[in-house]
């Protein structure tokens, strides 16, 4: 397979991860989930969301379902608590946790591929990427809060492709939710890979990786 010209990345749960201390601040510390509990709810929510995803505000419906499950599991339900957690999670500033070696891995990938970002966010994701030190790895950053449409709508992928002057057939999208990232990119004519840290799709037959190192290896295998 020929070397791809452009790789587009999602941000949340792909390049950056949630700042749980800030997001879960409305929860008493003794009721906050472990990382394993968080990932278990993430796996469950993604499967449920993928099966039943129908219109509406994409991120709100996902996180509303996620926190419904989480609060039931923690037996920590209270008036307004779920809505507070959803609001915290939808603030891009609260997605500022970056894994070690992320910048180095992106720089290596960038030697062979032009790179860009497509994110469902609040118009501020570029600022977060800059604060985390990786904005410079990308030639363009397409934020749904700025362009006025969001994944899985093909229009947001098409907007990013136009800015990068890239053809869909020579482009790859990397993101973590099947019905939003994988399906959306494929409908726009792009190839797609699931970035599956939580293991939600480990039993499915879709192209998937669970780290940037894994993506590097996958790309080498496609050459």
Task: Describe this entry's structure for a reader.
- The chain has two domains: 6-16 and 97-221, 3-Layer(aba) Sandwich (Rossmann fold); 20-94.
- α2 packs across α3 and α3 (58-74) crosses α4.
- The radius of gyration is 17 Å and the shape is globular.
- Strands 3-2-1-4-5-6 form a six-stranded parallel sheet.
- β2, α6 (125-131) and β3 (141-143) form a beta-alpha-beta unit.
- Helix content is 44%, strand content 11%.
- It has 223 residues and is of the alpha/beta class.
Keywords:
globular, six-stranded parallel sheet, 2 domains, Rossmann fold, 223 residues
CATH superfamily of the largest domain: HAD superfamily/HAD-like
- Helix/strand order: EHHHHHEHEHHEHEEH
Query: How many alpha or pi helices?
Result: 10
> For the report, how would you describe the main beta sheet?
6 strands, parallel
User: What is the typical, i.e. mean, pLDDT?
Assistant: 93
Give the fraction of residues assigned to helices.
Answer: 40-55%
CATH architecture of the largest domain: 3-Layer(aba) Sandwich
What portion of the residues fall into strands of 2 or more residues?
5-15%
Strand order of the largest sheet: 3-2-1-4-5-6
Number of strands: 6
Radius of gyration, Cα only, in angstroms? 17 Å
| Class inferred from helices and paired strands | alpha/beta
